[in-house]
Fold each of these.
Amino acid sequence: KAGVTQTPRYLIKTRGQQVTLSCSPISGHRSVSWYQQTPGQGLQFLFEYFSETQRNKGNFPGRFSGRQFSNSRSEMNVSTLELGDSALYLCASSLLGGYQETQYFGPGTRLLVL
Amino acid sequence: EDQVTQSPEALRLQEGESSSLNCSYTVSGLRGLFWYRQDPGKGPEFLFTLYSAGEEKEKERLKATLTKKESFLHITAPKPEDSATYLCAVQAVGGSYIPTFGRGTSLIVHP
């Protein structure tokens, strides 16, 4: 069974631009979560989608948004990029999302904002 | 607020030198505790899930144990390929099922 895939793997943008990252979950998984990982803050939860609806949201500004499509694929968008948005963005999928379910992570998208 | 603290932050071992990584947590009640391994520039790879105190799970040179306040990841006779960052995450009772992650322990095993 194919794992979680993320595209692109690497991205370089300049301040003020916007970016869209894509995530395809494991086949059959309907819950998709997004995380930001930086050396200083570790793994921080952005949001979770299930059945095309945002079900949980972390403590990030409104510049960070996402959506999920009917095939469970998800995208996240960051508008008006700031230098501090440079990070590894990770997508994780699970069957339904819920207690005691394991999240499986993709390889991540490395975003560098100049 | 749920808290997960991993120690040490970094650990250097010689090949064959066994050791343990610690994950202590403060939650109202534990639903599940997860261990992941993360190689540089890659996404976390799932290792174990533990649900209740006293539970143990093993995989090759790794063994995870759980008490009411902490979990240990024991590494027996490590090899250089065990070098990675090990992350711990918890799901708490009564809160969101979104897991809270620790900062991780960076392990380097020298040949």
Note: Chain A has a mean pLDDT of 95.
Amino acid sequence: DAGVTQSPTHLIKTRGQQVTLRCSPKSGHDTVSWYQQALGQGPQFIFQYYEEEERQRGNFPDRFSGHQFPNYSSELNVNALLLGDSALYLCASSLPPGDEQFFGPGTRLTVL
Amino acid sequence: GENVEQHPSTLSVQEGDSAVIKCTYSDSASNYFPWYKQELGKRPQLIIDIRSNVGEKKDQRIAVTLNKTAKHFSLHITETQPEDSAVYFCAASRNRDDKIIFGKGTRLHILP
């Protein structure tokens, strides 16, 4: 049973570019949440997708957008990249109601 | 807004001694308090959690306590071992599959 997977593992972009990160949830899970973890900090909630709709959103600008596909996989898109967007981006999946969120290995994004 | 404060940021203890990490939260609607362990370059791993209707929970060498009135919760690790060295995050959430608000983390060093 595969756990949560994310791609790519590492990514280097330059300021102003756009990036797409991908997440496949744990088998049987239909809810995907995205978190940003800056170096030396705790993860910060970006948004959560359920039934292909954004259900909740944290305090992130509109440059951060997402999508969930019918197979429950999800994408995180970031436009107009800033140096401060450099971080580990974690995806977590769960099965409501009340299931634990399982984290993927993350995508390390570096913005130069 | 929702916030979780965590102390200390760094903690060094002799192998075999106990370690205590303390957190406070601001959202009165929080009902679920997970603790995560994150090793360098790895994903956060849930090590123990507690719900608001429980004051204390223990799992082998790890215990958590919750004081909902004071909005305090703590992690206690007894008989520490070298493999306990990692960054630990406390967190709060309204439900298990809801957005998770993380503390900034405690880097735990187990000294030989």
Note: Chain A is about 0% helix and 50% strand.
